[in-house]
Amino acid sequence: MTRLFVGCGLGLLSLLLGASPGAAQQPTDWPRESPPPPLSARPATFPPYEVRTLSNGLQVVVVMHHEQPAVNLRLMVGSGAASDPTGKKGVAALVGQLLDQGTVNRPATEIAEAIDYVGGILSVGAATDLSFVNVLVMRDSFDFAADLLAEIARTPVFEPAEIERQRQQVLSGIQVSLDDPAYLAGVVFGRLVYGLHPYGMPHNGTPASVRSITRDDLRAFHEVHYVPNNTLLAIVGDIEAEPAFAAAERVFGDWVPRELPVSPNAALPAPTRRVVVVDKPGSAQTAIRVGHLGLARDSSDYLPFDVALKILGGEGGNRIGSVLRTERSLTYAASAEVVSRRFGGDFMAMADTRSDATAEALRLMVDEVARMQRERVSRRELENAQAYLAGSFPLTIEAPNAIAAQVLESLLYGLDLADLPTYPGRINAVTVDEIQRVTRTYLQPRQLSVVLVGEASAFVDDLVGVGFDDVEVLSIDEIGSFLTRDDQAVSVDSFPSLLPLIP
Length: 503
Fold this sequence. Notes:
Layout: E1 2-5, H1 11-16, E2 49-53, E3 59-64, E4 70-77, H2 91-98, H3 108-117, E5 121-126, E6 131-138, H4 142-154, H5 160-177, H6 181-194, H7 207-212, H8 215-225, E7 231-237, H9 241-252, E8 275-279, E9 285-293, H10 302-313, H11 319-327, E10 334-340, E11 345-354, H12 358-374, H13 379-392, H14 400-412, H15 423-428, H16 432-442, E12 449-454, E13 470-475, H17 479-484
Parallel strand pairs: 3-7, 8-12, 8-13
Antiparallel strand pairs: 1-13, 2-3, 4-6, 4-7, 5-6, 9-11, 9-12, 10-11
């Protein structure tokens, strides 16, 4: 790793005061683009549901959705990549991939043939905070689906040959991803923002950690985390409550609960400000990621902050896209999003631009973040974002699998299911004052972490002109050690000259 100290730049001062450096590219004469028209208001009625907890702690939600002759069963385990054992990153993901690759009663081929025979869809996997098994079938195959779901979740066999096959697939996927600027930018950004917290590591692991995983590691993770008192079950579709609960009791009632381990590393690191360039020689474009820590999913401010990020860089309005694409012709697309999980989250603005425009695009993105914090949004901007979010809500409750995912994630993050039907109304109740309050609270330009993936020689010397004078340059070969190295992230206090420039 190379660290460059290239002096104290004055570009950030003009950036944050609203002035553009003289060398900035002038706006084009292209016609100005506008956000797409908001979706027309549609009535949205959340289907009726019931919630019960089995004696072993398994929480079951039945949603009676009779629009289609289908039933979705989705089992969600409250442990994912964030619960990986120390030094074994990738265990949860590998366990998730192996769930449908053989049980104690039937091999993978038989499982695949059985689900194909009934015309169903089976999917398994793991994310950051959760693992899942999902089965979608026609209503006549409900009992079969319940049996299969329980068998896959409770009795995977982790056959050695299948472990090796899946391991090689993961390693091949990681190797391919190392040529993808978006992937590189994402994993380095996670490490900058979350430090050595589990959220800061790629959930599939690193090549070294994946190679170290044993069959015993997989069995141990499954034994500890795949227990009823750490699991949620949603049954959604053309079914009534009583037969659905009866099926849940039949296939899961004898599942023995266990004491759950304490979640590791639940505390997030202190905010930082770092700039990392991943050198990718020959790249014609630079992937830009800008952001910092955000808020947990159960925060009362999540909803207005999500609306704010839609104004900054989402559907229904996109300040960053308007500046970078319409006015400056620097990118095809730019966006911003909030990602919130159980213990915390982050916000990230992103864009891809040509190599020689990297510094200018970065300057403009940071400027929009700072402007979002210091200036009130317009009523029209808010209404466009609200119209998009509220208007798209009916689309999220049309299919049983989408409803199941929403319901279970609400329960996983400690949210009230009763809030789901009221989502459009709560979105439309957000005010300009709320937007200003949450942006001033949760958008912190002086705590931004920046990741740039591209040909470093084409832009790294220009970064001082936009206010970034302490830059770390990594080769692609150094990323693995960078992700796992126990280094001390750079504190915002290391940049005292920058702090007075930002309100």
